Amino acid sequence: MAVRRIINMGHPNLRQVAKPVPEAMLASEEITRLIADMQDTLRDYGGIGLAAPQIDVPLRLAIVEIPGGPTRYGQLAPMPLTTFINPSIEVLDDRCAGFWEGCLSVPGLRGFVTRPQHVRVRYTDIEGQSVSLEQKGFPATVFQHEFDHLDGRLFIDRMDDMSQLMFEAEFDKYGPIGD
Ligand code: NI
User: Where does residue 30 rank: exposed (0-12), middle (13-18), buried (19+ CB within 10 A)?
Assistant: First the structure.
């Protein structure tokens, strides 16, 4: 296991569409090591989600781990570490809510992004099983943020008002506005 380097906005590989994880790779030592490295990297950098393209691996694979309790996103229900292989997302209700998003590939910045708050995710888990998961609220935003990385998109692409993009120090001092 190892902490991998996260590539930052401006690196062209963050803007590529990632390839599906091939079936032959499921349950391989290679993917087991990759997922373990992603977990180490997520915890070392201190985030709630990480997509494989962020460590310069062009595969449709992401992990999410939401700590419970009070966070800068409000009071959250915890979500244990979950690995999403080849995820697809379906919006079940297009009513949106906004959060101040951050991204390990866009260090030091926060931006207000509105997204649909009720989604269904279909994915393959680490056992190779097909899973369908319905989520409302903040986790729905997290999934959309992470899976956007698999299509070469960053949260700033989803912003409606660029005046709501802030450095963290200014966010702490002057934000949030429009929340
Ligand atoms: Ni991100």
Answer: exposed
